[in-house]
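Researcher: Go.
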Amino acid sequence: MLTSKVSIILCTISVFALAACNNGSSNNTQPQSIDASFDDNTPSSYESVVISWQKTGASSIDYSMASGFLVTNSGQTFMSTYSGNVYSYNGSTWSLLGGQNSLSYGVLPNCMSIVNGILVAATGSTLENYNSGSNNWTQTWQTPDNSQIQSMSDNLLTTTSGKVFQFNGSSWTQIINGNNSTMYFALQNPLQLGMVYGMGQQGVWQYNSTTSAAIKFAPSVPTNSQVIYALPYSGYIMVVLSADGNLWLLTINGSWQNIGATSSPLQMATLAGFYGIIATDSVNIWNYQFNPSSGNGIWSKIGQSPDGAIAAMSSPFMNHGTTLWVATSSGNIWQATLGWQ
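Model: Structure:
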């Protein structure tokens, strides 16, 4: 068994804190509406962001191969690995679900979701459901064209053949076809109910659930770098982060707006409540705060990984947006708590 509360490391840095977004994973069949408004509690002057690192157990070689985390609104926390394992956290220990290497293949990066109350993991071109009663995994769906699943969020998933599928309560249905090129992400903007956006290599598609029609909404993000992150953002369709460190906003009229870049390439990112965007280049931790009045913002380096390269990083808890889960190449899992100093 793993033991919690092993060590704490503090790092601080001054940032200009201005904006807020919230994100999390839903345990409903329909995506949770994300409160993308700017939080009134955000400090309006220079403050220091504090990261408190707390290790949650003994090292494991499998943890160093983490592929992603899933944190639900109710606080359930899961971690997947490239070796085909999924673990759950009960507040003190990590437990293996379904036995060692029980999934057919390794779980794809950040490709777990709760669909119809069931934990679902994407492995290659298939989806596998976890049965808590029998403690096993069962293959339940495969992409019709055998293409690789690219991303999964709530009841939406995308494929390398440019498709977006949505779970309608009983089955997965194709809603967008993006011209046979990789579809990176799919999302719903809470300010546009019934609209689904698929963001891929060839552009952004919009699906209207009322008319069941999909149209090309915008060109592809103007970067030659890999897209690593996309989420709804207040007053815009979405915010997108590319691996070269550039941050882009997609406006409601279908144009892209660059709002800043880090000084080093990035590997993964997440929204963190009124702490803005948290990103990593695998070692350093970066924070971005957006100023809606100026249409721009600032990136600041706020710390480093406590013990090696970061293998996976979670989205924060939906309720307060202050806690992140981080798995490192040293085989440790850390809770990173954000705060103002």
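Model: The first strand starts at residue 8 and ends at 16.
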